[in-house]
């Protein structure tokens, strides 16, 4: 059973109808962050299994992860309502 362009279009249409255009960028950002976390955890597990002295590397990886998630680029952005008036 193959998935054709019609099926893909229907799935995209249903997603847009369910979540709305405003929520899709937020959803995509959340999925991207989740994938990065998952990949870093998988890498950490592989490194842990491949090295006999994994404690030093794990501590360094956790420090790098903390630095990454605490960086200004990864912090939530403040959104201001757009109502067409200026203060």
From TrEMBL:
This is Sec-independent protein translocase protein TatA. The chain crosses the membrane at residues 6-25. GO terms for biological process: protein transport by the Tat complex. Keywords: Cell membrane, Membrane, Protein transport, Translocation, Transmembrane, Transmembrane helix, Transport. It comes from the Bacteria. Belongs to the TatA/E family. It is found in: Cell membrane. InterPro entries: TatA/B/E (IPR003369), TatA/E (IPR006312). It is a single-pass membrane protein. Part of the twin-arginine translocation (Tat) system that transports large folded proteins containing a characteristic twin-arginine motif in their signal peptide across membranes. TatA could form the protein-conducting channel of the Tat system. The gene is tatA.
